[in-house]
Amino acid sequence: MDLRSPMASMASDLLRYGARHDGGYWNTTGASRFVLVNEILPRMRADGCRTFVHGCVGGGNDQRRFARYGAQVAPEMSVVEPWTSPRALERFPDRAAMLAAVTEHGLRLDQGSGADRSTDANLAGISHESAELEDLETPVTRLRPRWSRWPQETSAEPETVTVVFHEGRVADVNGSGPDPVEWMARANEIGSRHGVWLRDVVERRIIGTVCRGVYEAPGLELLERAWTRVLQAGLDAAGRELYDRLAGVLGAALYEARWLDPAAYAARDAIDRLVGEIGGSVTLSVHRGVVRVERMKVASDVVQQTRFGSGGNRWSEIVAV
Amino acid sequence: MDLRSPMASMASDLLRYGARHDGGYWNTTGASRFVLVNEILPRMRADGCRTFVHGCVGGGNDQRRFARYGAQVAPEMSVVEPWTSPRALERFPDRAAMLAAVTEHGLRLDQGSGADRSTDANLAGISHESAELEDLETPVTRLRPRWSRWPQETSAEPETVTVVFHEGRVADVNGSGPDPVEWMARANEIGSRHGVWLRDVVERRIIGTVCRGVYEAPGLELLERAWTRVLQAGLDAAGRELYDRLAGVLGAALYEARWLDPAAYAARDAIDRLVGEIGGSVTLSVHRGVVRVERMKVASDVVQQTRFGSGGNRWSEIVAV
Amino acid sequence: MDLRSPMASMASDLLRYGARHDGGYWNTTGASRFVLVNEILPRMRADGCRTFVHGCVGGGNDQRRFARYGAQVAPEMSVVEPWTSPRALERFPDRAAMLAAVTEHGLRLDQGSGADRSTDANLAGISHESAELEDLETPVTRLRPRWSRWPQETSAEPETVTVVFHEGRVADVNGSGPDPVEWMARANEIGSRHGVWLRDVVERRIIGTVCRGVYEAPGLELLERAWTRVLQAGLDAAGRELYDRLAGVLGAALYEARWLDPAAYAARDAIDRLVGEIGGSVTLSVHRGVVRVERMKVASDVVQQTRFGSGGNRWSEIVAV
Amino acid sequence: MDLRSPMASMASDLLRYGARHDGGYWNTTGASRFVLVNEILPRMRADGCRTFVHGCVGGGNDQRRFARYGAQVAPEMSVVEPWTSPRALERFPDRAAMLAAVTEHGLRLDQGSGADRSTDANLAGISHESAELEDLETPVTRLRPRWSRWPQETSAEPETVTVVFHEGRVADVNGSGPDPVEWMARANEIGSRHGVWLRDVVERRIIGTVCRGVYEAPGLELLERAWTRVLQAGLDAAGRELYDRLAGVLGAALYEARWLDPAAYAARDAIDRLVGEIGGSVTLSVHRGVVRVERMKVASDVVQQTRFGSGGNRWSEIVAV
């Protein structure tokens, strides 16, 4: 099933709504859970399916995400989660027992999925967790990036990227045109080439443990620098403060699988109003892991300061605000 | 007057309290205003001075900062601000009239202080504003960094830095020892060598204009990466959320010259409690403008996740939170 | 000019958006400034007026409110504020000089407007400030309410009121029907009869002084109890938290005359989404200044708890959230 | 075991830290859970006990509160919760089975504890839940208050109360003296006599159900009116905003049994700084459920507004803030 188009639309939403998680990383894995359920369940229903079975292990984030979205997208379908069922757990107490059963039934298993690491990839990004990285004393460079590379391994030549925004959404990335699949791919390609990707985050999980995750999102990281500049130039101070608060609400909503809850709809409506008419063209310089805003052309009305340009430092009377 | 020591202590506070301003930059210029008033006025008072005169132009941030801190640090001294006095403004309507008066009285003037740019430097960082940079279409690279350099002009070799934190403060940077003047200088030196410094921010000022400022704070930027990792490992989720909120309160307080207000004292007390016992040793890799946390040794009690390390993905029952 | 209808619509908005100010009072005076400018200026423009003159004294809230709304509602009209003009201030340095000039020109003056108190009234409420009440040691009962009365002077008989909400707005108050002018009048009448009105608030103004204001809003106070119950029953926890935050944003926006700013539009859009489909019928008991929710009939879907009703305290297994 | 003194100290903390829950009620039941565990476990440990057994039913707030506080106050003691143990649940599937077992073993049972309601009382307040009140259409007046009475049943005569605050704590209530047990009893007695008590709140629980609870806290409700006035007069605007935020953090911490978590300690430290030196004497009028601030004498330094008192409405120039 090709879900690149809805995943690209979701990436466009992530950027527009600033839905980053704790520590500022793009929680592309959480986002993909929504896309998967939202796209697959209607097709299953159309095929006459009445039950939604998924293999997430109990107690994890993903298990809750599939459960919540499933109940919202297809409330009439029942959800079966083998790894929270006492009977299944009795039959397969651990991974070894499961592997034995797979072999016993002559089934094929992807040998790559060892138990010591977990990688999740989609058009918007990749997340990595592993036994080795769990230890905070492990150098992060033990990780081999999948799309991108470490900055010191990248090209010696800087590259210039122009990102155009129109009505609060990306309209073009270096000639990609406005289709999110196209500009997302273009941004990923440029970002990867120059080692723009790393978010190495240590999170305190709700249950109190510390967990290190590494996130590759070269395209979104690159676009975020440009989008932030558009927000800086296009929103007034109160608008920016509200945007930041609501973006925080939406980042948490995505993590907790509350993207379809009333508060998330409301937060998106508010941001639609704030950014629905802003735009501009931002020129970035990308080089060895660094994305720098070089300059921008503002599309919306902005009163630019001309403190110096107007002939020197103003020596004026106090102006009451 | 050598104020490096109080300025270094202030830099240590900026880091501990996360007091960054809108857009995340280190408002080292605002911080220095507090240090200046807090250090100079007591000495002036001791010398018998009764009046505090400063030359800030009317309506600007600095004029309000000197006025507020002056009133708090030495309430019995009167403040004279020539550039908000109607008589002074009548006599010197613009910069040209002032220059003429200076020449006329045979006084010497620092030729460097042209009207088209404003730079402010101290041990913690440098801020740049100028007529040229005001225009958002001007490439930011027109700016010549003062301490640092552009990443592409830096050394080809990465460098490793170890930052040790003890009781919520920097205790060592690559052997500097715990004196803030020493570790601040060391961090600035390393950061500058590798082009770690840039914050190019477009702010919407209260009066509604858009203003671009560029901030060099190579040492604080470098230390911030390490400190953030210590916070990630040392605080629980609720503690981190409260830290972030209070850091926002303190960042705004510093900008608005409210560092000595009751809310700022209260916010610092709360953060003192949160971070007063956390520490650890963080190893950074610094290269061409990128600071990466390589690994860390945690000093405080932390329950590290051993999801993979404990023998595979847990297939366990749901654990109620 | 009869502005009861737009003022009643504004009161309906105040309730829907929870736009109360610091301390929880209904800032009906601030709200009326928006209504006045928003209604009068278009009529002035239609009559060919090019200048908007108002008599607010300098430095006060109202002066800024008229200025801001004037610039937004009719940006092409110029604003003249005699009491901030140096020439006018020279001519009339104080109230006595103004009174002399009025008499001198044979003009009539409303004798009621003494200098020792300030009252502002509209369909939504009344605000009182005065020289006597300024002193925090003055008993608040020195004030004579204008619409309402002190609870001990009210009828001995409780009264029952039923407020119906539909799609997030008042649809009826004891048979008033859905016209805001009608239900606002009905609510004011009932609230006044039973002494429901008082908000005696001491505010710290921005300039640092302490100021006591007393607010009569019998109708809005009464309706607020019912609306809060509808919100409690109709919103989920995250929705309620977001509502409360945005209501705070809008309360401040109204005080600061930012009701037409982008952040205020955005906050209203979000609340429209949250409350646009909630409703119900709330029965209140009103007596001697106390409004109590007796019971409610919920219109929206609500999962009511049946902890006891379902046959006793549940002795069930932990349910993971 | 007489825990009135620690419970009164806790009530003093509730007031000082503004730790009210969603909807503004005093969560005295949650507060008492902390006091119980904090007082009883050290005595148990001193007696050589190694296990802490409590009878809370599974999945409820109290079960989690006892578990969390138990782990913090006496981490070395093990906790046994029969109603979450599969074996106990098999043996006693419902309340009837439990009652049968009690009778069978010839044990005595408090006949008052029927399954259709739940009341919890301590020095600070009482909470009521019941099968009847669960239904939002049930008139709240079906409830018989336990300490207090409905306003219409109270004395016809208003009463005056003077509450003195010193260093951010109650120092006296109508001559009670500074012992919290004494002033808490005095405030409860006066509040009860005049029907000051009701908080009828409908909460959306996390699990999505709607639940109505009724809270009697006559003393704390009365004191809160006085304390709010002291805060209004004693804190500046930024201090008040921070106080309100932190009070919200602490109200949630109390509900969720996080009173001993680092964020709660930090929030209390900040409020200690804000209110540690404020005080004053507030005179309340109490009558038929209404508590009104009549006047106050401020102890701390306050710049009172003298807008009218200074000889009329100021006609002055704009003063920049």
Side by side, the strands of the main sheet of chain A go: 3-4-8-7
Distance from N terminus to C terminus of chain A (CA atoms, Å) equals 57 Å
Give the SSE order of chain A as H and E letters: HHEHEHHEEHEEHEEHHHEE
The unreliable regions of chain A are 309-321
Strand content of chain A: 15-25%
The shape of chain A is globular
Structural class of chain A: alpha+beta
Fraction in helix of chain A: 40-55%
Task: Please state the oligomeric state of the protein chains shown.
Answer: homotetramer
The overall pLDDT average of chain A reads 87
What Rg of chain A is obtained from the alpha carbons, in whole angstroms?
23 Å
- Given the structure, what is the number of helices of chain A? 10
Labels describing this entry:
321 residues; globular; homotetramer; 40% helix
Describe this structure in words.
Four copies of one chain form a homotetramer. In chain A, the strands form three sheets. Chain A has a four-stranded antiparallel beta sheet. Chain A has a four-stranded antiparallel beta sheet with strand order 6-5-9-10, covered by helices on one side. The first copy, chain A, has helices at 4-16, 28-46, 61-73, 86-91, 95-104, 131-134, 180-193, 218-234, 237-255, 262-275; strands spanning 51-53, 78-80, 117-122, 125-130, 159-166, 169-173, 198-204, 210-216, 280-287, 290-298. In chain A, helix 1 crosses helix 2 (28-46) and helix 7 packs across helix 8 (218-234). By secondary structure, chain A is α+β, with helices and mostly antiparallel strands. The longest helix of chain A is centred in the N-terminal third of the chain and has 19 residues, at 28-46. The model of chain A is unreliable at 309-321 (pLDDT under 50). Chains in contact: A-B, A-C, A-D, B-C, B-D, C-D. Chains A and B meet through strand 7, helix 8, strand 9 and strand 10 of A and strand 7, helix 8, strand 9 and strand 10 of B.
